[in-house]
């Protein structure tokens, strides 16, 4: 099963967050649709599957690193990944404080790769490249799937050549709308 291009598109996601925020639970739920309650905390696991997202066949890998990973191993996982799921628990405030720290580490690590991040990290596009979802992994699989699919879409969009990106199209559309609105105002 492949997309319009005839090829499977590789998408690599890394799941991060403070301890016990449900990282493994989310991965297992997405892969198997099941919530089993207790998970192995020690091992690093890469989950792999294929999914069709917007008619694009995606070869998806989700890396769930071990809770005691070294800083070097964390950075190498960040370099490996195309997209990130940052988890915190709404019942433990301390786990939320970990999110901006991880976000900063991701930005720094990716920037040091010398990619085109200066452009993509400008204020306007930053918003488009992040999503926020509140969900219970235990309650429903649909919210988990929607969240992972949303991130895959962001990654696919980011991988497209610049003129093809939805964000680029949106910028053009907004610019045109502004221009049209302005000229209409001038006629008045
Ligand atoms: N009630 C409830 N419990 C959850 C939910 N998600 C995960 N848990 C529980 O939270 C605990 C931690 O989940 P894990 O998936 O092991 O968390 P983790 O972030 O992978 O943990 P570490 O690998 O130690 O960092 C487990 O007992 C899960 O059953 C949820 O949505 N609701």
Characterise this structure.
With 188 residues, this protein is an alpha/beta fold. The chain has a single domain (9-160), classed as P-loop containing nucleotide triphosphate hydrolases (Rossmann fold), CATH 3.40.50. Helix content is 48%, strand content 17%. The protein has seven helices and four strands; from the N terminus they run βαββαβααααα. The chain has a four-stranded mixed sheet with strand order 2-3-1-4, sandwiched between helices. A hairpin with a 2-residue loop joins strand 2 and strand 3. It starts with 8 loop residues before the first strand and ends with a helix. Mean pLDDT is 83; it is low at 116-125 and 183-188. The structure holds guanosine-5'-triphosphate. Guanosine-5'-triphosphate binds next to helix 1.
Characteristic key phrases:
188 residues, alpha/beta, Rossmann fold, four-stranded mixed beta sheet, disordered C terminus, binds guanosine-5'-triphosphate
Q: How are the elements arranged and paired?
A:
Elements: E1 9-17, H1 23-32, E2 45-53, E3 56-64, H2 71-80, E4 83-87, H3 93-111, H4 117-120, H5 123-128, H6 141-159, H7 166-187
Parallel strand pairs: 1-3, 1-4
Antiparallel strand pairs: 2-3
Bound molecules: guanosine-5'-triphosphate.
CATH architectural name: 3-Layer(aba) Sandwich
The total count of helices amounts to 7
Cross-sheet strand order for the largest sheet: 2-3-1-4
The pLDDT mean sits at 83
Number of domains: 1
Report the sheet with the most strands, covering strand number, pairing sense and barrel closure.
4 strands, mixed
Which percent range describes the beta-strand content? Answer: 15-25%
User: Which segments are poorly predicted (pLDDT under 50) over 5 or more consecutive residues?
Assistant: 116-125, 183-188
Helix content: 40-55%
- In CATH terms, the superfamily is P-loop containing nucleotide triphosphate hydrolases
Q: Please count the beta strands (DSSP E, at least 2 residues each).
A: 4
Shape: globular
Order of helices and strands: EHEEHEHHHHH
Measured between the Cα atoms of the first and last residue, the distance is 55 Å
Q: What ligands can be seen in this structure?
A: guanosine-5'-triphosphate
Which class do the helix and strand fractions yield?
alpha/beta
């Amino acid at each position: 099963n492949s997309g319009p291009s005839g090829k499977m598109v590789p998408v690599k996601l890394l799941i991060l967050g403070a301890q016990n925020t449900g990282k493994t639970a989310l991965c297992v739920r997405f892969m198997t649709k099941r919530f089993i309650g207790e998970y192995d905390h020690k091992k690093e696991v890469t989950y792999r599957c294929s999914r069709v997202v917007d008619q694009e066949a995606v070869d998806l890998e989700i890396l769930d690193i071990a809770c005691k990973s070294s800083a070097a191993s964390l950075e190498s996982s960040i370099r490996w990944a195309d997209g990130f799921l940052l988890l915190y628990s709404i019942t433990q405030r301390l786990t939320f404080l970990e999110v901006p720290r991880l976000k900063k580490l991701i930005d720094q690590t990716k920037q040091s790769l010398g990619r085109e991040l200066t452009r993509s990290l400008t204020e306007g596009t930053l918003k488009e490249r992040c999503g926020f979802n509140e969900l219970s992994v235990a309650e429903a699989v649909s919210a988990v799937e929607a969240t992972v699919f949303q991130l895959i879409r962001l990654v696919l969009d980011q991988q497209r050549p610049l003129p093809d990106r939805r964000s680029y199209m949106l910028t053009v559309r907004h610019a045109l709308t502004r221009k049209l609105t302005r000229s209409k105002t001038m006629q008045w």
